[in-house]
Amino acid sequence: MGRRPTTIIAGALALLTVPAFAAETVDVFSTSGCGCCIGWMKHLEEAGFEVSNENLAMADLYAKKTGAGLKPGQTSCHTGFVGGYVVEGHVPAAEVKRLLAEKPDAIGLAVPDMPAGSPGMGTSDEPYEVLLVARDGTSTVFARYPK
């Protein structure tokens, strides 16, 4: 006996209610009391990510960065890990989602320093780049802001 058309339609409609982006957890490492780090984590949560945070001493935080393969000039104030990638600095949530969807062969994304206008850093039209960091430590532009 075959399925009734209404059962098939109901099953298809149920699939439409599944979110297109399943919540991923971003494990963030920062130093205690950094307001812009807290702002970035709120930005990720508002975009649907779950966020865990561990505060480290500066030397331990730097060890996390270098251990992930980041080079001088690619770092910022906090370091996140999600889906096997490092996410360094004030990377917009949209680019983290794109990284997880495209799955490039790289260590992750970085927004070096702390550019004004990046998530967690307030409002500004100051341009900045999101870098895709390759396994050999080189980087290419993944996105430019403002768009």
UniProtKB/TrEMBL annotation:
Signal peptide: 1-22
UniProt cross-references to SUPFAM superfamilies, sorted A to Z: Thioredoxin-like
Keyword set, alphabetical order: Signal
Protein's name according to its UniProt entry: Metal-binding protein
